[in-house]
Amino acid sequence: MPRIGYRAHDFGSFESAEALGERIESIRPGCIQLALNKVIPTARPWQEWDEEYISAIAAALHRHGVDIAIIGCYINPIDPDPETRKNELRRFSKSLSLAHAFGCPFVGTETGTVSPTGGYSIDTADPRNVDVFKASLSEMLEAAEKHDAYVAIEAVARNHSISTLERMADILSSFRTDRLRTIFDPVNLIPYTGIPEADGVSLRVPSEEAEHRFVSDVLDLYGEKLAAIHCKDYYLEEETGLKVGDIPALTGIFRWRAFAEEMERRGMDVPWLLENHDPRTVRETAETIAAY
C-alpha cells in the first residue's frame, strides 16, 4: 500500500507551519516535500535558518500528523555563472546541515539547466554540463557526508543536464557513495515524445508492455537508492504528439495501479508525493492511490 504525501506548496501559501499543518490534516494527514520559502513566504531567508527555528517548524507540522519526507532545495547546480552556482551550492549545503532539525535526512534537487529563465535550452544537453553537474554534486555529497544527510537527485527528460536513464546510470556509477539517493518522477523522466514501443514508435497511449519496460528499467537502476516517488500524470498533445506532464495523478494515461503493483513486488516502500494536484479532488486522489 503506497504511503501518500504531498508537495506542500501545491496547497498554496501559508503564514505559518501551523497553518500548513492544519490544512493538510484537514484533508488527509501525510508526509510532504517541503520547500520552506515557497510555501511560507514570510519564513526567514535560508541564510538565517538555525536548528531552533527549523526544529520549531518541524514540530508544528508534526502536531498535525505531518512529517517531512523530502527537504525541497531545488537549486540550479549547473548555472553558467560561477558565483551564482556557488551561492546555490551554499543554499543546498545549508539544508543538509539542518536535516536533523527538519527531521528528514533527504535534501532533493533537480540537475539544472543553462537557461537563464530555468527553462529549456538546447545547450543544456552538452556533455560539458554533465561535468559541471558532477563537480557540483561532488561538493553536495561532501557536505552530506559531513552532516550525516543525503542528496536526492531527480532526472528530468529534455530540460535538465541529467535527462535520460543512461545519464543517470553514469552519475550513479561515478559516485558510489551511500550519500547519493534518487527521486523518481515517472512523468518527468518519460521522453517528450512518449514511451517508445519495441519498434521505436510512440503511441497515443503506450502499451502495457512498453510502460512496464520503462518503469522496470528505472527501478532496476535506482534500486535501494530510491528515496521517493513524485506522482502526477501526463498525456500526449493531439497536434504535436509531445508530452503535457503537469496534470493531477489519475487524470492522464500513466498506469499508477500497475506501477504500485511493481513497487510492491519489488518491496520498494518509499513515500509517494502528489504533485500538481487539484485541491478539490486531492483527498479522493490520495485515498484511491493509497488503496492500490
Gist?
The chain is α/β, with parallel strands linked by helices and 292 residues long. It folds into 2 domains: 3-186 and 208-226, Divalent-metal-dependent TIM barrel enzymes (TIM Barrel, Alpha-Beta Barrel), CATH 3.20.20; 187-207 and 227-292, no CATH class.
What report would you give on this structure?
This protein is an alpha/beta fold and 292 residues long. The chain has 2 domains: 3-186 and 208-226, TIM Barrel (Alpha-Beta Barrel); 187-207 and 227-292, no CATH class. Helices cover 40% and strands 16% of the residues. The chain is built from 11 helices and 10 strands. Strands 1-2-3-4-5-6-7-10 form an 8-stranded parallel β-barrel, surrounded by 4 helices. It has a two-stranded antiparallel sheet with strand order 8-9. α1 (17-27) packs parallel to α3 (51-62) and α9 (208-222) runs parallel beside α10 (256-266). The longest helix is centred in the middle third of the chain and has 21 residues, at 127-147. The radius of gyration is 18 Å and the shape is globular. 42% of the residues are buried. The mean pLDDT is 97.
**Physical arrangement of strands within the biggest beta sheet:** 1-2-3-4-5-6-7-10
Compute the number of helices: 11
Q: What is the CA-based Rg, rounded?
A: 18 Å
Helix content: 40-55%
Main beta-sheet annotation:
8 strands, parallel, barrel
Distance between the termini: 6 Å
The SSE string, one letter per element, is EHEHHEHHEHEHEHHEEEHEH
Number of structurally distinct domains: 2
Global outline: globular
The CATH H-level homologous superfamily of the largest domain: Divalent-metal-dependent TIM barrel enzymes
- Let me know the number of strands: 10
Task: Using the 3D structure, state the CATH architecture of the largest domain.
Answer: Alpha-Beta Barrel
Weakly predicted, low-confidence segments: none
Question: Under CATH, the topology of the largest domain is which?
Answer: TIM Barrel
CATH class term of the largest domain: Alpha Beta
Structural class: alpha/beta
Mean pLDDT, as a whole number? 97
Strand content: 15-25%
